[in-house]
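Dear colleagues,

As part of the handover before I leave the project, I'm documenting each prediction I ran so the next person doesn't have to rerun anything. This entry is a single chain, and its sequence is reproduced below.
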Amino acid sequence: MDPSSAKLSLKEKIGYGLGDTASNFVFHSVNVLLLFYYTDVFGISAAAAGTLFVVARVWDAINDPLMGALADRTHTRWGKYRPYLLWLAVPFGICGYLAFANPQFGESGKLVYAYVTYFLLMTIYTAINVPYSALMGVMTPSSAERTSLSSFRFVGAFSGQLLISMGALPLVKKLGEGDMATGFKYTMALFAVVAVILFIITFCTTRERIQTAVEKQDKVSIGKDMLFLLKNRPWVIMVIAAILTLSNAAIRWAVTPHFFKYYVGDDGTTVFWFLDRTSLIMTTGSLAFIAGIFFTGMLSRRFGKRNALIGLTILNALSLLAFYFIPPSAYSTMIVVNAIGSFIAGPTPALVWAIYTDVVEYGEWRFGRGTPGLAFSVATLAQQLGIAVGGGMAGWLLHFYGFQANQLQSESAISGLRTLFSLLPGILALGNGLVLFWYPLTESTVAQIESDLAERRGKLAISNDEPPTKAMLGEAPN
């Protein structure tokens, strides 16, 4: 039977998607709020925070590939990747809370505490998110189903981001009763509990079905696995694109609260329902993003994943650049432009992660070596590197432009905020779109890879005196 018929149940797709909701309850809070928390609440300078974001990625450069290789070599009755969702859900929640716990230390003590808690959080994030990402590659052999599964994943991811956009700052205000430090602490405690519960649901509702070539070759060294990845041209291109994508997103995320507080003039006053200006624009952007995700399948079928991703990336870059020309008084225009750009960007994460599963299968097809955990771990590392570069640049450039927390900003600082919120992310997004022109895998090539691997996996099972499973033969599981 054709691999495209290997359908996953709606329950399993929703369950998998909730895993990224869990991840984003902590991780997106870090991306959007941590620099603001460090500078305006905890009392760390923007430059010191920027350095922290970059230094932490030195450890990630070691930690991420090791985690991927470890996951590829894990053998349990639950599979290779699913167990980590159960084992690490609680540590992930605890570390997310500790990053915003606001202990009463002196200046040096605060900086040490920030380093320790941020390093711990990024380590646990890697240890749970790399297996979670790799899990998508072994749930079904069908590229079309993985594209659908990726859409569910990012509906879950951006639903989490929507809830953070809507609720984080209002909750900080409500739970802190005017004390932002207390508000952040209680808000993150709540988010951490939700994240733990959702990761456990993902563990309970998903299954691993695909046996990759690495199953029979666990003695091959990590170094040789890395060489296989570096020979995988489509994978290398996607890693470069990931760095550019997350750099532009991280810069914008990091300075969003600063931009609206100091440039637009958001003083925390409610402007719609319970939302202030910052929360409202993040909420409408998240809603538009989620709406865009539902067009992923249509765009993929109509243009192919590669072409759709290139077009959407360039259009989104233009929307980012347009923000530079919007005056602070035109808040309604900002909402509209942000919503349009977010809607255009909506399908891109699902397309990217669906393409990652294609390039992993290309590696197995081309080199006879399937390493989903390692491939996804380095892809995750590339994204974290992008976030580090973006977050570091945001902190350093805020300092360079003369930003001073909780003060009236200079003309230079205001100009810097506009650049960081618009021009720099837009330029990086354009660069990402150009890089993707070199991505070589067409839809027909992916279909051929699916067919060849289905046949190869069936022969692998037979050669090891094991009856081929339906998933190995490309058939739908019961």
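The chain has one domain: 9-463. The first helix runs from residue 10 to 42.

All the best with the project,
I.
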